[in-house]
Amino acid sequence: MAMHDTDVLVIGSGAGGAVTAVTLARSGRSVSIVEEGPWVDPDATEPFSLAEMVAKYRHGGSCAALGRPAIAYAEGRCVGGSTEINSGLYHRLPGELADEWQRDYRIDEFGADALDRYAARIEDELAVSRLPGAPPMSSAVLERGAAKLGWRAVEFSRVFRYEPSGRAVKQTMARTLLPRAMEAGATVIADCRVSKLLRSGDHIVGALCDRQRPDGSHEELVIRADHVFVCAGATQTPALLQRSGIRHNIGNGLKMHPTVKIAARFDHPIDHGEVPMHRVTEFAPGLTIGGSASRRGHVALALADAGSEYAAALADWERVAVYYAAIRSEGHGRVRALPRLRAPLVTYNLTDGDMSRLARALLHLGEVLLAAGACEMYPSVTGGVVARGPEDLVQWWDATSRNRANLMTVHLTSTVRIGENRDRTGADSFGRVWDFTNLHVNDASLLPDAPGVNPQGTIMAIAARNSDHFLSQ
Amino acid sequence: MLWFEREVVAALMSPTLDDAERAAVESYVDQTLRSMPEHLRAGVLGESLLFGARARLAHALGRPADAGLRGRVERWKTSQIDVVRQYVRLLHSLVVFAENELMPSVR
């Protein structure tokens, strides 16, 4: 059995883990970052391709939260976590939500002003910016449709750097904060899964790991640490804590943004290289409309979801793009570690109100795409009529039922919520797990609720805030 | 993959694929099924065993297995029973994605 000693152990290298690691390493701490997945060159695969799914997605992209209906979800499993596979769109947490969460969960030093200071720091570090020049057609059509309807639409910033050649480079954690943490002395241990945390009373003394060697063989590794930050995401963080016997309000409050989609066919070619950066925010934060990855494989998947004949539309795929509508859900789910199994059981219960909101979301998405010039729309509802005009949309209302809706999400949060109300939270206002002196969570698990927008900016701002608080102690 | 899963995957593939392309799609589906969370894979295996037993019974009773399977798979795509619809949707999604990402002839 191999041994490794460190001052701070960070488990997980995504948005939360990378911010934690770079902040603590720059302060002079000895930091080791453990990542279950491999280190993959960010340029090794095309974004959203099959090769990327195989190399960087957990379970090859085939995860689902069980419930009625089941909800497919995607997570990264590689150095950099989900920042390696997401769209790179950047949002600050809406101020009203920050204030609401502070009040409802009694979170100290958490208001909108405090979080905005940390968000500004992250934006500066990652060069968060708008697209220079005009947006691509796939994005512009959303703005056009919203304008025709008198709805609000916004072009969002992205975590991208723009090279003089015009190439846009997503500023993933493997490209940015992790190398910077290493420059400050941190160590990254990839292909290393933490089986459980090692406890001594109310203290964590280290972690028992299963490390894969370059030749494919495995070895046990024990990492001894003075402080442990678990940043493995909203499904893996609670699962690890549960495997380690830590269960108080751990894994109970899972939240997500359930999402419906439409494959929309236009009478003109549409680009497929980038995820649209416009969002229709008329109904935000309860409902957000935007564009999805639209490689040929995604177009085919979205067309197939309607259950109708789609060969002609697929043959014309260069005029087809995929769009989504995501809701903030009233429902909630759970994450449970299962004995002797590596993957946790993830469940999610949508309320009847959620199903109504999803139906309304699908209709609004159809409205804005029709206004944008779509001539044919395939909804992600089995047996949902292929809509060619406003009169068809109303049929989607009844069709969006529990046994016909095909839902997915990429945003999972809230399985170890923060706040001083111990009855509702798993960690204190700064992410320290209740009843432990040196165990912290610092990732999407901490968010008290789903934010209604891409959560990466919120996760990073909270992680920076909590890391600063840790250093101030 | 189980025998019946191979049969369903074959039934879902585009008829224009040649043998090498069919093998590539089947390999991707097999790899992804192996990567699934264990409890989800166990559920899919259970359904495959159940549906496979039914297909073998139909074959033993003299019904043309291949044509019968294609028809059943098409019906399952729109089944009102969620687990049945999700079973074929999972396999269909993997086949469709692989065909369209990997295969020049489908493109």
Question: Overall mean pLDDT score of chain A?
Answer: 96
CATH topology of the largest domain in chain A: FAD/NAD(P)-binding domain
CATH architecture of the largest domain in chain A: 3-Layer(bba) Sandwich
What is the gyration radius of chain B calculated from CA atoms? 14 Å
> What number of domains of chain A?
2
**Count of individual beta strands of chain B:** 0
Binned, the helix content of chain A reads: 25-40%
Give the largest interface: A-B, 34 and 30 residues
Output the number of helix runs of chain A.
13
Sheet/helix structural class of chain A: alpha+beta
> CATH H-level name of the largest domain in chain A... which superfamily?
FAD/NAD(P)-binding domain
Shape of chain A: globular
Oligomer: heterodimer
Outline the structure in words.
The complex is a heterodimer of chains A (473) and B (107). Chain A is built from 13 helices and 24 strands. Chain A has 473 residues and is an alpha+beta fold. In chain A, the strands form 8 sheets. In chain A, strands 1, 2, 10, 11, 12, 13 and 24 form a 7-stranded mixed β-sheet that branches. Chain A has a 4-stranded antiparallel β-sheet with strand order 17-18-15-21, sandwiched between helices. A 3-stranded mixed β-sheet of chain A has the order 3-4-22, with no helix packed on it. In chain A, helix 1 (15-26) links the parallel strand 1 and strand 2 (31-34). In chain A, helix 1 (15-26) packs parallel to helix 6 (177-183), helix 4 packs across helix 13 (456-472) and helix 5 packs across helix 10 (352-371). The mean pLDDT of chain A is 96. With 107 residues, chain B is an all-alpha fold. Chain B has one domain (3-102). Chain B has 5 helices and no strands. Chain B has helices at residues 3-12, 19-35, 38-60, 65-77, 82-102. In chain B, helix 1 (3-12) crosses helix 5 and helix 2 (19-35) packs across helix 5 (82-102). The chains are: A alpha+beta (473), B mainly alpha (107).
